[in-house]
UniProtKB/TrEMBL annotation:
Listed name of the protein: Predicted arabinose efflux permease, MFS family
GO cellular component, one term: plasma membrane
Membrane topology per record: Multi-pass membrane protein
Superkingdom, taxonomy of origin: Bacteria
Annotated compartments: Membrane
Length: 396
């Protein structure tokens, strides 16, 4: 197996950053197409929304063992195989109108995303040390947010001119380019392989779950990202079906909210040296205040501008909390970086999917005040976790 050459270290790092947004690209590029998919396939909104939740569940479940896979078999080979399978799965999705086949491909794509993203997270821990490692792990979460920013913006135009299938053709092409460059310029970075054994994996998970700061951090990651997915599940339908705007406008809205998420990440980077828990609690308080303001404002205004303005500010706080906690969790156990990254992503994204889909299914948001209600539920859950964290620290 080809070992990463020192001369290729920079380009391999760029490639790793290019792979990291794959999960976001796979979930967000077709958001503006979801209403059209429902109409063209003759299915209810919930059936199309389920394609996103299925992906996230698969993505999360895979990460439970993906870390052990990349720690046992290496980062490079696993990445190559995953990218190759991405190409075929996206092509199948683009050429079928059978929702069962689409569901199956979304399961496959979620699993592949989980494996390849965990592999690239571990890459940064392998290659960089100390402050550089912190620097790149923090940047990684910001780069990861690029997918949700640009994907729906591109997807809106693809939907308008070529239909929903074009989203998956573009993803297949992007995966092929990554596969080609990965093969040519990257290499193995794992120095010591760990055994792929169930008992070893259970032992590692048990050790990590016993670290309460790590466990609470995972919960906060899941709840923070659930705010984004909650809006993604209902936003396009509200904007296109209830408000009467086009899929391009829905794409622009997702672009703006993606920028909000990135702003939260940059804010996290800017305040990286501030005391950890106090800044997280302040962000949660601001978040809840914004949600309450959104709720009361809904009695006076219910336009796309007010909806997006409040969502933008709320998503900044969510991005800030996620960026801080995610970087903390995946760097918490540097000697088992793949497993730690997999466990963090696994629990966080399963929680994200389950909570966001459940809230949408119960509330069925169609207007601004109902979106505020969904945000409020998530914000209160976050406050509860932070209260438990504070209580535990006080009684440690």
């Amino acid at each position: 197996m080809s070992v990463l050459k020192e001369k290729n270290k920079f380009i391999a790092t760029i490639l790793a950053f290019a792979v990291i947004p794959m999960s976001g690209l796979s979930t967000d590029i077709y958001l503006p197409s979801m209403p059209s998919m429902a109409t063209e396939l003759g299915l209810p909104e919930s059936s199309i929304q389920l394609t996103l939740s299925i992906f996230l569940i698969s993505y999360g479940l895979t990460q439970f063992f993906a870390g052990s896979v990349v720690d046992a078999f290496g980062r490079y080979r696993v990445s190559l195989i995953s990218l190759a399978l991405f190409v075929f799965s996206f092509l199948i999705t683009a050429t079928t109108k059978d929702i069962v086949v689409i569901y199956a491909m979304r399961v496959v794509q979620g699993a592949l995303a989980g494996i390849v993203v965990v592999s690239k997270r571990a890459f940064f821990v392998d290659v960089y040390k100390g402050e550089k490692r912190k620097h790149y792990l923090s940047i990684m979460t910001i780069v990861w947010s690029v997918g949700p920013i640009i994907a729906p913006f591109i997807g809106g135009y693809l939907q308008k001119h070529f239909g929903w299938q074009s989203n998956f053709y573009v993803l297949a092409g992007y995966s092929f380019l990554l596969l080609l460059f990965e093969f040519l310029f990257s290499g193995e970075t794992l120095k010591v392989k760990r055994p792929f054994k169930i008992d070893f994996l259970v032992k590692e998970y048990n050790m990590m779950f016993r670290a309460k700061d790590f466990f609470y951090g995972i919960l906060m990651c899941g709840l923070s990202y659930a705010m984004v997915i909650f809006f993604n599940l209902c936003g396009a339908f509200i904007i296109e079906h209830k408000m009467g705007y086009s899929e391009v406008v829905a794409g622009y809205v997702s672009l703006v909210l993606g920028l909000a998420w990135m702003c939260g990440g940059f804010l996290g980077r800017f305040l990286i040296k501030k005391a950890f828990l106090p800044k997280i609690r302040i962000a949660n308080y601001i978040q809840l205040a914004l949600i309450v303001a959104m709720f009361f404002a809904s009695f006076y205004t219910n336009t796309i501008y007010s909806l997006v303005a409040f969502a933008f500010l709320i998503h900044i706080t969510a991005g800030f909390i996620f960026n801080n906690y995610f970087a903390y969790c995946i760097g918490r156990f540097p000697d088992s970086a793949g497993i730690a990254g997999g466990l963090t992503g696994g629990v966080a994204f399963i929680l994200t999917s389950a909570v966001s889909y459940s809230i949408v299914a119960v509330l069925k948001p169609a207007i601004q005040i109902e979106v505020a209600e969904g945000y409020f539920i998530l914000g209160i859950f976050g406050l509860l976790v932070l209260t438990l964290t504070k209580w535990r620290k006080a009684h440690a």
